[in-house]
Amino acid sequence: MVKVRVRQKNQITIPLRIAEAANIKQDDMLEINYANGVVTLMPHGRKERKRSVMDYSGIARGVWGETIAEIDEELQRERESWER
Q: Which of the two residues, 64 and 50, has the higher pLDDT score?
């Protein structure tokens, strides 16, 4: 966790690597919020995108196997591990 010091007039400096990762540039406007003991900064105009449940469809494709037989074998191995 990076620490910053609050300076005169309640000013802080955002560390360079955090500003770069968040794509914050000089003269950008930030929104500041305080809720439940947490202060958050967010670039002005950048809102959370509402996602549909369908955005997640197929997210686990291939995790347990590619074919029905492979998936059945993996599920059987998993179930057998519960009995140990």
A: 64
Task: Please give the Cα distance from 55 to 53 (Å, whole number).
Answer: 5
Give 8's pLDDT tier (boundaries 50, 70, 90). very high
Higher pLDDT, 18 or 45: 18
Torsion sign across C-alpha atoms 12, 15, 21, 26: positive
70's CB contacts (< 8 A; 6+ apart) are 64
Specify whether the backbone of 18 is left (phi greater than 0), alpha (psi in -120 to 50) or beta.
alpha
Q: What are phi and psi of 24, to 5 degrees?
A: -95, 125
Which of 2, 46, 49 is closest to 24 using CA atoms? Answer: 46
Provide the whole-model pTM: 0.48
Which backbone phi and psi does 20 adopt, to 5 degrees? -65, -45
Number of residues that make up the chain: 84
